[in-house]
Amino acid sequence: MDLEQRVAELERRLAELERAVGEADAARSASSSVRPPQRDPGDALWALNGLKEQFAALGAVNGGVLFTGAVRTRAGLRYEWQYGLPTDTVMDGDWAAAAESFAALGQPVRLRLLREILDGRCTAAELTELDGMGTTGQIYHHLRQLTAAGWLHTAVRGRYEVPAERVVPLLVMLTAAGR
Prior knowledge:
The chain is an alpha+beta fold.
């Protein structure tokens, strides 16, 4: 998929979400019976049940997928993030477009680099000092692969960081993988 096709797909998805939000806002203002979800202390599936209510209110008859998190890394950085899509949008999307992102995470050294960076070791010099990471050239290769896939960026010359919008998705993927 070339850049123009990716942009067109993102514009289509954004328009769909804006339409769904507009319809939900109209439904909320037309009816005072729509209430925010309440947490039942005895409900072990409170997040799932709340999600189902939200997607039903949006008219997403096939439900949806949501991932969210509020985390603080061992380095003391805080991240709060949430993202969701209707099931139909996910199922109709271009799954092959995710291959590069998944592939970048397919190396144990790259996953360790991400962990170390989240833990506060942010420079290539700090990362090359770690045992079992390979040569300096290998480390730079892995850093380039993670950067190209959007899992890293350089904040200041020589300092790497996981973009804020990627921290929770990374942790979700690791959790989903059984880690």
